[in-house]
Amino acid sequence: MSLSTGVKHESKYAIAMEDLVVIALFSPSNPASSPPHIPQTLGTAFESPGEALVNLYEVFESHKRLFDMKSPTSFMETASTIRMKLVRNREMPHFRHLQQGALSALQWCIAAYALSIHPDSSIHLKKLAMGPDRTWGFGLVATRRICKGSTLWEALGMCPGDFSASHSELSCITIAKGQNQPAGAKRVMYGPLRMVNHRCRSFNAEFAFIKNTSAFVAEALADIEAGEEITAYGSSNPRITFS
Questions:
Q1: Which pTM value belongs to this model?
Q2: Whole-angstrom Cα distance, residue 63 to residue 150?
């Protein structure tokens, strides 16, 4: 199954599993490290136990070598393997009790974030010092030169099929005409694309929707050099269509 054509998850599952994956994979392993920073969550409350974070991180780390950029299907396949390991292990009760909708969203988030941090990816999700006060946050950074007009397929975002779950308003987007949900509907976006930071000036990318799906990617508006942050403006109204 393609990452861009998966099922429309319920917002309550998409938000909860997005937050679980992001906190598990990107929070500092040593809270006393300097400078510590915990990623912002989409949900208004994070309810997964600490044990679940450790379980997910350890199983992900033990399988991440199986993600292969030369085999796009390996991302969903490996994420499925990780999902099964978590569910079948009796020492990981949190995952055994998740609904199927939550497990499907979990698998998608694992695959999408694995793509964004793979050694061969054109982008990496990284902790960055941002703004004049140099506070820490997360953003997407080019790992090599990206030419103007290139599609950043590793920077993938997805929308759930509803807007009912409580959320932080951190990452909202409007469904475009030609997608598989009502045009103009407001949705929360989850996945690595939500980590693209907003810039009023000197932005170098824009959001693009993928036709007949609930997915979005980014397209480079200018040449982006290795080490440069990927930024966008007006991302709530994507304008480009991909078949």
A1: 0.91
A2: 30
